Amino acid sequence: MGKKQKLFVGLTVMGLIWLISWQLSLAQECFSCADDSVSFLNDKCTVILVGKGASADGSVISTHTCDCAVCDWTWRRVAPADFEEGAKRRIYWIPQFETSPPDEGLRWETLEKGFTGLEIPQPNRTFGYLHGLFGYINDHQVAIGESTIGCRKQMENNTPTPKFDVTMLTLIAMERATTARQAIQIMGDLATKYGYGNTDSGEMLAVSDPNEIWLFEIMPVGPLWTPELNMPGAVWCAQRVPDDQVSVCPNESRIGEIDLQNADYFMASENVITYAEENGFYSTSSGKPFNWKKAYSPSEHSATSSNGAYGRMWRFFDLVAPSQKFSPDKPNMEFPFSIKPEKKLSVGDVIDMLRDKFDGTQFWTARGLQGGPFENPNRLPYGFKLEGKKYNTPRCIGVNRAEYVTVIQCRDWLPNPIGGLVWLGFGAQDTDCFMPFYQGVTEIPRSFEIGDHWEFDRESARWAFDYVDFHTQVVYSYAIKDVRAAQEKWEKSALHRTAEIDQKALALYKESPEKATQFLTDYCNNNANLVINAWWELGDWLLVKYNHWWLYDVKERKRKPLTYPDWWLKELVKSNKLKPAPEHED
Q1: Do 29 and 39 meet the contact criterion of CB atoms below 8 Å apart?
Q2: CA dihedral defined by 499, 501, 506, 509, rounded to 10 degrees?
Q3: Per-residue pLDDT at 41 exceeds 60
Q4: Do 123 and 174 fall within a single domain?
Q5: pLDDT, tens digit, for every residue of 461-508?
Q6: Which pTM value belongs to this model?
């Protein structure tokens, strides 16, 4: 067979593989876009980015709501390591939406089954880091948050040819990067050289360090790419958030017009514009400036047009700059890349935003019948179909399917082990409790490393929070008050205690870095274990207090019925055609 025939057969096979993969991927899609050529996954994450001049204490802040509902939630700490000259680093496919039964081993113990066949040169030393589904912070306070943004369907590459997915890219960045810019360049170079895709499409990463924060977007370049083509195996672009501004990524591409001459604010792959031209996504002859998101991930949704399903963009800008009165009718593609907040944001402010459910707006997820008599904001999170028609329901920032949520601070006035701080909350934001973990910890609780969705396990930290969440859903408007009280006791106190812990750790660090890391390890693990125990007890308490939908007074050893709102009782009378009881009846 001649070279041309082999090439034709190879391309044909690759095309068939892509077609099958593409058809299977359609089953994962949820809300359709105005441009049907763009694909989005139904499980989505929200990322908030805060420049150091926009935060209340001068820290760079990034978040990640790992909104999946079926993904791995386990965490681990990877220690720094030294390697001999010539050592190799094995590269694995690590699908976001895949888990293994616990009896097969922990997710991070079964990586070999995803070995891509690629090994890359290992540096002499790799950095330590904390990670869950993605790498989150390393020894140099390089931090990451993730949000899937989708891309044009013809760009997807679900074949085995690309060797990197987004999870693997973040782990390599954690191991090797000392700054946010270096992390971006490392991930971009690996993706373009070895190919990006497999189970991932368009992805966004918030990449930060103690001085700056960037929004990095990366996409595959189609199912026919091979290394032999000597063409980039990915297309990517990154834009820096100004120090005094904030930004957001609610699963939508955020980078618009780019200025590659301004290297302080933009980075990109060499094919950032040419790939769009070659595939008909953009034409220089149009006279219009190149716009990244319009070329690669266009969407014309607004909060209003989608009944709030794409309302997070508007909600974020409305929260941070309320006086500008952004309209929910404004197409999401027209919102600015970033904005100066009307007040500087504290970690507590960011946590409150992560719990937002469109409170006080027309998209409030607990309004009317959707919320029911106890104003539960977590019903119908995906919309529904009725009589052949599809109805969207609002998708809030604080959606109830998070595996865990991170709020990460990078702080330039403290040594790295003390300056890097991850606030980690397991499960849904409204019923979780954020726990501090300094970058310098040398271990994390064993309960963070185990558990999955399909087997209840009291040894797993995550199940403590799901236990509380489950009991809260039944009589939400009542039970959430008990949860808020527990959050005030454990979460707020930890937030207020941060400055004190910083100073104690800093004093020890000046004496001995090892003493400081041991102090931080003890503090974080002890606090986490106390919180986990408190949440198990809270779950027991909610079960007793609201058992059988009554209100049990433990102290008085009495019970009384829960009160239902008049509006709901009127709807019940109307729906069930009830008639008033005779006046003489008690």
Answers
A1: yes
A2: -160
A3: no
A4: yes
A5: 999 999 999 999 999 999 999 999 999 999 999 999 999 999 999 999
A6: 0.92
Q: How far is CA 9 from the centre of its chain?
A: 40
Q: How many domains does the chain have?
A: 2
**Which region among 41-45, 57-61, 171-175, 261-265 has the lowest average model confidence (pLDDT)?**
41-45
Residues 247 and 385 in one domain: yes
Which DSSP category does 464 fall into? H
In a domain, 378, yes or no: yes
Shared-domain flag, residues 67 and 138: yes
Which pLDDT does position 97 carry in this prediction? 87
The DSSP line for 282-327 is: --GGG-PPPBHHHHHS-----TTTTTTTT-HHHHHHHHH-GGG---
Confirm whether 408 is domain-assigned.
Answer: no
Decide if 220 contacts 196 (C-beta within 8 A). yes
Residue 460 lies in domain: 414-559
* 570 occurs within a structural domain: no
Considering the domain architecture, whether residues 446 and 387 belong to the same structural domain is answered as: no
List Cβ neighbours of 404 (8 Å cut-off, separation of 6 or more): 66, 73, 75, 132, 424, 425, 426, 427, 432, 462
Joined tokens for residue 93: 């496919």
H or E stretch covering 507 = helix 493-511
Give the tens place of pLDDT for each residue, 558-577.
999 999 999 999 999 999 99
Q: What DSSP state is assigned to residue 339?
A: B
CA–CA separation, 456 and 472 (whole Å): 18
